[in-house]
Amino acid sequence: MSDIFKTIAKYQYSTEAQIIKGRLESEGIPVFLSDNFTIETDPLVSNAIGGIKLKVYAEDALQAQHILETIQKYSVDDEGNAIKCINCSSNHIAMVSTITDFKSFFSFIIGFLSGTLPFYTKDKYRCEDCNTEFDIK
Questions:
Q1: Adjacent-strand bridge partners of 53
Q2: Which of 52, 64, 84, 120 could form a disulfide with 107 if both were Cys (CB 3.0 to 4.6 A apart)?
Q3: What strands, in cross-sheet order, belong to the sheet with 52-57?
Q4: For the CA atoms of the chain, what is the radius of gyration?
Q5: How much is the pTM?
Q6: Is the pLDDT of residue 61 over 70?
Q7: How far is CA 54 from the centre of its chain?
Q8: Least confident segment among 5-14, 25-34, 68-77, 124-133
Q9: pLDDT at residue 119 above 60?
Q10: At residue 61, what are phi and psi to the nearest 5 degrees?
Q11: Residue 51, SS3 per DSSP
């Protein structure tokens, strides 16, 4: 049976896998998800069981991997344009959430102790090429 299907990607969350599944199916590639119901039931076991496996027929694997490579993996603005680094003009930008100041740390501690969500965090963008962090206005 391992010759019939090939795992082409693994995802920590079901939503990520469902989005990619929809993209591949729109290209005519049948997609099968493995362990998605287990992780939807208990998301904390995702790392323990290796995440949600995205599987395709072995003969469709090369085409599916090519489609995965064309999907934009970095941050885009509201119009869909790639965000560029203010330092090096690279478009390898990822959004990060950090607890860096007293206000966010204090809110984190209060939220943690009282069990309320969400915690206050400030979203920033980080360039993966030069590690510059910046905000977008």
A1: 10, 34
A2: 120
A3: 5-11, 52-57, 31-34
A4: 19
A5: 0.57
A6: yes
A7: 14
A8: 68-77
A9: no
A10: -60, -45
A11: coil
